[in-house]
Amino acid sequence: MAQDESRLVAAETVTAGDAEAIAYLKEAIARGRHWYPALLGAIGLWASAREDFDGRAYVYLIDGEAFDWLLLAERLCGTVAEFIPENEKESLLFRGVPPIDLDGAVVRELIGDKKFGQYLNYFYGVTVEETLLLAVQAEIDKERHGLGLVNQSRAADEVYRRVYDMDKETLLKQFRQEKKHSQRSSTTIAEMKEFTYWLFKYRLKRCEKARIASDTKKALDYLKRQWRHKGASAILGGDLTPAVAD
């Protein structure tokens, strides 16, 4: 997916655009609008690609093109926490299940075309890529169980070798060299998301089209089963990902 220039900008403090988004969210809820579409409208107004807030670094836009909308949703929900039912907020932020189903066209209108495209980049580049690793892990676990093997110490490396033809440590080192990150012994959540998106593009560049299609289908099928288990049709909107529809 080609890099999409964005109006999102780096921020150390709350920018005018971000303040506008927060004010919009509060006012919309105060006027009686349901908090979820109000939240999406605020997301559409948000300007910062990253933010340092309350002692935490928030990276909303990965590699300039993949929009982590749930992270921004978490940040914005914190500004109106007293007006959002706790169970609905937890279902959205921790299970990815929105309180009401919205048509994809409505969602796109609320968050804007640009962020919608960046959301799809994140969906395929991070969510689906993470799910591919889980799906392959499940295959390996099933194989090992069938052989009576219980030691999982090498299973993680096997996942990465099957998907990327290389072990995780080598890939992570290559990613950090390319991105000029320090080679440390631990990773942050933000770095893991960036690494996953890098792996997605790595796979697209180096694998045959038939293999890419097969792996992506495997991940989408696995993700669809996860959604069914938690009673969701899709994140953000039921028709945003037609590839997983029945």
Give a description of the structure.
The structure is a single chain. The chain has helices at residues 16-30, 35-45, 69-77, 86-95, 104-111, 113-146, 155-164, 168-179, 189-206, 209-229; strands at residues 9-11, 48-53, 56-59, 61-62, 66-67. The protein is mostly helical and 246 residues long. A three-stranded mixed β-sheet has the order 1-2-3, with helices on one face. A hairpin with a 3-residue loop joins strand 4 and strand 5. Residues 1-7 and 238-246 have low confidence and may be disordered.
In a nutshell, what does this entry contain?
The protein is mainly alpha-helical and 246 residues long.
Rounded to an integer in angstroms, the radius of gyration calculated over CA atoms is: 19 Å
Describe the global form: globular
Order of helices and strands: EHHEEEEHHHHHHHH
Oligomer state equals single chain
What is the CA–CA distance across the termini?
Answer: 25 Å
Helices and strands in order:
Blueprint: E1 9-11, H1 16-30, H2 35-45, E2 48-53, E3 56-59, E4 61-62, E5 66-67, H3 69-77, H4 86-95, H5 104-111, H6 113-146, H7 155-164, H8 168-179, H9 189-206, H10 209-229
Parallel strand pairs: 1-2
Antiparallel strand pairs: 2-3, 4-5
Helix pairs in contact: 1-2, 2-3, 5-6, 6-7, 6-9, 6-10
